[in-house]
């Protein structure tokens, strides 16, 4: 494997700003970086990667989230009421009872975590003297609103890899570092996200991580289907229970629709525990798949919000270390991870984008093979194992 380019795009302690880089050797791939100006997007840094088939835009300023993408003629992402990437300097996560995170929510792929994620709540924690005190946790944690401190690009004759480092740290509190590698092979419809979360401190720290992978039109449309191999499925709440019979299908945009969430225990291959989920269009000739190991992400949430197009017609596939309930509830259920001082945890998420009927069919067959491993059980109402009822 020959390295063609290896460049720092943003260095720790740099005062020179984000460098503008354009690379194109005539083979169809390119890398471009720039800074947005004006309005709430002012100062947001963007790295656009095009491997010749798949293109996507990463936002180092927003925790290395992926704003949007396109595979051949298939747009990836969604049309949020939040039209531009929002600089975290303009986000107050405590706003409206702890849901201020939503003021910047418009990415295709956004991380939730690192110390907490899920519903806003008050939680009780211990200080380093062992004393209890209450903290307010906001919706989906902090990582999506923390700028990266180190970003670099490496291009070989086989792949493009973007690396970044994001710190969620404080004195007398959690000190977690995210090192991410977003990699795509030249000419491929796929990308992989390899994330390593390290506890920089000496004391154990709680860790939660969820990937909010979001899709709107045209992949999401009337007749689109979610294909998921599972052992258990339950609605998050009574509102979600109303749609349990049609959980895997989608309608056209419905003005006034109220979101629904569903919690899954997925089926994984014996040994590796590898699994996959897929959203496919009505015709079955376009799809996007998530591939991951249940050892990394044992919990999966499906978010359905087929609201009016102007209000955010969107659905989300969400692999995670736990379910997006309050952290207190997830801790009680034994689903909150602890990372010991100086230790790390590495996870991998692969996104495969399919643009032919043959490829979509083959993916469906693969998921059906997984489903044969275990019987599926659909709960019509929320269950105490998954939801705080």
Briefly summarize what is shown:
With 389 residues, the protein is mainly beta.
Description:
The chain is mainly beta. The chain has one domain (3-378): Beta-galactosidase, Chain A, domain 5, CATH 2.70.98. It has helices at residues 95-98, 238-241, 309-312, 327-332, 357-371, and strands at residues 3-10, 22-23, 30-35, 45-50, 54-59, 65-71, 74-76, 109-114, 121-126, 132-137, 150-156, 159-169, 175-185, 190-199, 205-215, 225-227, 230-235, 260-266, 274-280, 287-293, 299-306, 313-320, 337-339, 344-354, 377-378. The strands form four sheets. The chain has a nine-stranded antiparallel beta sheet, covered by helices on one side. Strands 8, 15, 17, 18, 21, 22, 23 and 25 form an eight-stranded mixed beta sheet that branches.
- Give me the strand/helix succession: EEEEEEEHEEEEEEEEEEHEEEEHEHEEHE
Could you tell me the mean pLDDT?
94
Largest sheet: 9 strands, antiparallel
Provide the CATH top-level class.
Answer: Mainly Beta
Helix amount, in percent? under 10%
Number of domains: 1
Q: Architecture in CATH?
A: Distorted Sandwich
- Write the CATH fold name: Beta-galactosidase, Chain A, domain 5
- Distance, first to last CA: 54 Å
Number of helices: 5
Low-confidence stretches: none
Number of strands: 25
> What general form does the structure show?
globular
The spatial strand order of the largest sheet comes to 1-11-12-13-14-24-20-19-16
Structural Rg = 20 Å
Structural class: mainly beta
Strand residue content: 35-45%
